[in-house]
Each structure stands twice: as C-alpha cells, then as structure tokens.
Specification:
The chain is mainly α. About 70% of the residues lie in helices and about 0% in strands. It is built from 15 helices and no strands. The longest helix is centred in the middle third of the chain and has 28 residues. It is globular and about 55 Å long.
Length: about 300
C-alpha cells in the first residue's frame, strides 16, 4: 500500500520516469502554468506523501527510496534545464527540480520542511511563470532566450522580478527560497549518512544557480537582438500589480512563515556547515559567469568595478 501511494505521488509530481508531462504542459497559457504548475497541481503528489506520513509510518527502506528518487529527479531536471533554450521549459524543469528536493526532504524524514518549501516555492515560481509569459507576449510569442536581450531596458519591472525570482530560486539569503531550500540542504548535512542522495541534491543546487544565471545573461545582460522599431514596454497595470504582489511575497513570506507558521523547523548548525549552502550559490555564479560570459572577462570586470 505504501509503495502504491508512492507510485501515484511520483507520477503526479513529475518525478524521474514520469517527468515528461510537465515540460509538455508548457504549451498551455502561462497564467495557467503560474497557478497549476507552481503551487497546486504538481505539488499534489508531494502533499499526498506528507499526509500519508501521518497515517503510515515510513520504513527506513522507503525513506531511502524517496531520498534516491528525489535526488535523481532533482539532478536530472537541473541538468536538462542547463541546455534548454525555451524560457518556459527552463522554468518547468526548474519546477521538477524543486519537486525532487521536496521528495528528498520527505526521504530525510522532515515532512514539515517539505510542506514549508511547497509554500515558499509557490510565490517565486508563480512570479517567474508570469514574468516569462509577459516577455513572450511582448516579444510576439518568442520563447527562445537566444533571441532575447536587453530586456532590462525594455521591460525594467519584469526584468527586476525575474532577477528577484531567480535569486530566491537559488537560495539567496533572506528571500523565500533561502528559508526552506537551505533547510533541506542543511538537514542533509546533519544526516550525512545518506551520502548519495545528499551529494546529488547539492550538485543539482549548483546546476540551479548556473541555469538561473544563464536566463539572466541571455535575456537581460546580452545586447538587444530585436529590431530597433519593435515597440516593447510595460503596459498592463493589472499584470504589473500581480507580479508586484508576488515579488513582495517572495521577499517577506519566508520570514513570515518562519516566524509565525513553521517555528519548529529550525536546528542549530556549526558556522562552517551553515555556510555550505551559501557557498554553493557563489560557486554556481562563478561557474555560470565562466560558461556564459567567460572567466577572464567576468573577473576583470568584477575587479574593474
């Protein structure tokens, strides 16, 4: 019965072997993706496992299976996102990667942290979907990031929100993803006996930083590649207000949940272990800059400024 429920959950939450439906669903409207593929439908399988844990005690073998499946899913999705050029599929594989991380948390026996990550992930991922849909709409249905560029000038608010969502996605301190995602990685450091699953989760975290940096570079740091007569601007105040509210939630919701909703999910680590997840962010930025800008130009520009 336990493994039957697990099979249904991994199919619903697009784990490895059942993952192709989620990127394929990106052909639908972006507002639908912002709702169903960030915070409601795709996380139903993970939520089912969380509720199942209160009914049936998970055996150690079952927890190891959850840890392994979640780690492999997280690694696979992050690796595939590195080579995608469709902006919506990059966000879709990013969602699959986060779902794998939630299953890793369940495999480590911390179901409350998995639910915490569901709540924080909903804000910044819905914002990323809406921002990507806005870019596609304003660029006349163009989804290839290689044909984008200079969008900070053309769409300053959308570009700022994508930057904010990407920073939250990689676990930048004091944003939504930092409070939940880093808890899972830190829990893995504490329980390092399950080495393989934890190592894969940390490796996929580095890949997450790289593909997030890649989207920012292609869409915003590269020069404008569209025609000079293309009229692109922030025009819809209702959509801008929706993105703004999600951006505000991305900034404050992690602190709010930690302080008032999930106060029991903290644990104290030595400083050198606490900073390990943060070092992954810096390592991923350096690798991403080296791959997509060039190590020499990145380092020279860094010291120049």
């Amino acid at each position: 019965m336990l493994f039957s429920g697990f099979l249904a959950s991994i199919a619903k939450s697009a784990q490895i072997g059942f993952h192709p439906w989620l990127p394929a669903a990106m052909e639908g409207p972006t507002p639908v993706s912002a709702l169903l593929h960030s915070s409601t439908m795709v996380v139903a399988g993970v939520f089912f496992l969380i509720r199942l844990s209160s009914l049936i005690k998970f055996t150690p073998f079952f927890s190891r299976v959850c840890l392994f499946i979640g780690g492999i899913t997280s690694f696979f999705a992050a690796r595939v996102a590195l080579v995608q050029y469709d902006i919506k599929k990059i966000v879709a594989y990013s969602t699959t990667r986060q779902l794998g991380l939630m299953v890793v948390s369940i495999g480590l026996g911390r179901h409350l942290i998995a639910f915490f990550h569901i709540c924080t992930h909903a804000f910044f991922k819905a914002m990323l979907f809406l921002c990507s849909g806005r870019i596609i709409h304003r660029l006349k249905k163009e989804q290839d990031i290689r044909k984008m560029g200079g969008l900070f000038i053309l769409l300053p608010l959308t570009g700022s929100c994508i930057l904010l969502g990407s920073l939250a996605l990689v676990g930048t301190p004091f944003l939504a993803g930092f409070y939940s995602k880093d808890l899972i990685l830190e829990l893995g450091v504490v329980r390092f006996s399950k080495f393989v699953g934890i190592f894969i989760a940390f490796l996929s975290s580095i890949f997450t930083v790289i593909y997030s940096f890649r989207v920012i570079v292609y869409c915003f740091l590269f020069p404008i590649t569209r025609g000079s007569l293309l009229i692109v601007s922030e025009e819809n105040p209702k959509l801008i207000f929706s993105i703004f509210r999600l951006g505000l939630g991305t900034i404050v919701i992690g602190w709010f949940f930690c302080s008032y909703v999930f106060p029991a999910v903290f644990f104290i680590l030595p400083f050198y272990l606490k900073i390990a997840a943060l070092l992954i962010v810096f390592l991923g930025i350096i690798l991403g800059a080296g791959f997509y800008i060039g190590f020499i130009s990145f380092i020279s520009s860094f010291f120049y400024y």
